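README, section 4: Worked example with a bound small molecule

Sections 1 through 3 covered apo chains. Here we extend the same pipeline to holo records, where the ligand is supplied as SMILES alongside the sequence. The molecule in this example is pyridoxal-5'-phosphate. Nothing else about the input changes; the structure line simply encodes the ligand pose together with the chain.
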Amino acid sequence: VEGSAGVFVSGGSEANFTCLQAARQWAAQVDGWDVRAEGVQRMRYPFVLYQSDQGHFCIRRSVEAMGLGRNAIHIIPSTPSLQMDVDRLRDQILADWGAGLRPFCVVATAGTVETGTIDPLDDLADLCAEQGLWLHVDGAYGAFGILDERVAPLYKGIERAHSLATDQHKWLSVPIDCGCALVRNGAALRDAFSLTLPNQDEHEPWLSEYTLQRTRRFRALDVWAVIHSAGRNGLARAIAHNIKMAHLLAQLVEAEPDLELISSGPLSIVRFRFAPPELRNEPLLLDRLNKALVHEMQQQGRAFLTSTSFQGKEALRACIVNYMTTETDIRTIVDETISVGKKEHSAINRGSTKKR
Ligand SMILES: Cc1ncc(COP(=O)(O)O)c(C=O)c1O
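The generated complex, written as structure tokens:
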């Protein structure tokens, strides 16, 4: 896009941070002041931005690092489908304008870390246009899911975002560390970081004029190598296959009486837990059991799942982004969960019998 800028950074957190710096720079410019010169000490109206309760915590860290304070993030509840609730967002923005605050940015997510949900980007773009706000999309995990044509329609509106954070070291299998900050208004990004005037030097723009980092490694080479070897179609096939494997995992989990499916789709994250029918009414025991299970499974090393508690339940989380993932791997995850789960259950039983 004419006038846009993009720069590789260390990962999703830094990509989000870089984009938010541009958003803040732009908002202050719109109001006629220079946030880099004056800092937040002299801010006329406190800046606020918005994120759903499913958004990633790195946004909070960015906002804290920018000196806005984490209270500047107004968390918008999500709908039952775990998407940002656009009506509640509108109410909050209007209330904030009314209270003398300065709404400046909406942070949407294309692929939340918990479930891979994609916010209603088109509706959010409409609202941002109506309210004069910057729409940032955190696509660290999920942006490249758009390559799978079966889910691509869910991303409608992403092309209207003012900025997008991606993580090449997640779904593109580029070695860590590599993310990318894409900003439609490239001048705002440059203004947020540069120390020279545009066109002051004769050379090509320095990347250090667009980020906090100065000296850096040649990240673009890794990205080029992956794209060159896999091609767009190869990447699309790998991503579509990962999503298919996630569907398979969800199906297998549903077919197992000892497992409970917590969430799955639309991308490649599946949440489930070991929950034999006789324990379904024992939430505390199930939480304890599943926590122990994940730890033990990681120690055994046959499958690697993470655990976080979601909607009050301790669950296992599979996030399938490795292009080599096969059906056998998926079946191993299920078998391993059941076998380690049973072992941990007996261990807990033995422990409670001993105590008696
Ligand atoms: C939605 C989302 N945003 C941001 C991040 C942070 O990315 P990184 O760990 O590369 O800094 C993650 C990481 O899981 C993520 O899922």
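What to look for in the output: The domain at 5-217 is CATH 3.40.640.10 (Aspartate Aminotransferase; domain 2). The chain has two domains: 5-217, 241-355.

Section 5 describes how to batch many such records.
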